[in-house]
Design brief:
two-stranded antiparallel ribbon, single chain, 7-stranded mixed beta sheet, 10 helices, alpha/beta
Length: 304
Amino acid sequence: MTKSREWKGNTGGGFLGQHALIVLFKLLNIRMLYCIMALVALFYMLLSNKNCRAIYHFFRIQFGYSAWKSFGCTYKNHFAFGQVILDRFAVFAGKKDIFEVEITGNEHFRSLASGSKGFIVAGSHVGNFEISGYLLHSEGKAINALVYSGETEVVRRNRTKMLRSNNIRLIPIADDMSHIFTACAALQSGEVVSMSCDRSLGSPKSITCDFLNGKADFPVGAFALATHFDVEAIAVFVMKESYKKYKVHVKPIKADAAPGEELTKREKTERYVRSFAGELEAIVRQYPTQWFNYYNFWKNEPIP
């Protein structure tokens, strides 16, 4: 993926704004803050024109919506993004009990967690993948989550505290790629490694997949690890269903060979990537306004 197509974002608001938000959550009902966010989202669309155009373009090209419907969905997308950010800070303020969680496909996670080998949890920038680490406790195997290292002190401190209590360790993504060595050591120890699989984590290696009426590059990193260490992979999508409910979708990622077929490591990795892209496409079609990649994700399309 070229630099012009990358989006390297962090949580906005700065140290003081984020700290103030945590204080507000201790005083106000989350629905009240959602009402405020409904107005803020509109202003953000106007101020962040490049991000807004990227999502508008997403609805026009990938879904074929009309101009008016695309504009309405762009607003819903920004509002939804604001909600998932607010939900994260609600948890930081000690209000995680207000959220309900429904899990489908949890048998896939439990089966792998009960085994002796490690495995890969593939996440993405749809829904609210991070909040699952705050709301759900990992029994048995430790989960090692690769995370963006450029967040503010408020986010880093609260994120570390909440995830550590749920048996989840953070691996900051480093420019020298040292996070890969840490992830390898975790898999060798029979632990779980969780990472985003829809954006590059520093490695230029990717595979072009058919994705939502276009072609897009998906990084191979997580699935190259799965192939190298001969471990399984699952995709986890955490989608917001209502103001207080999240639904977790756990999907197995397959790279099986046909009877009599023998795959090379490269071929197996490619099948993993394409399987993940297919599962991601299915979930985005189900929840189109919860796609939070704010740049032009597709190849050979004009950058808006």
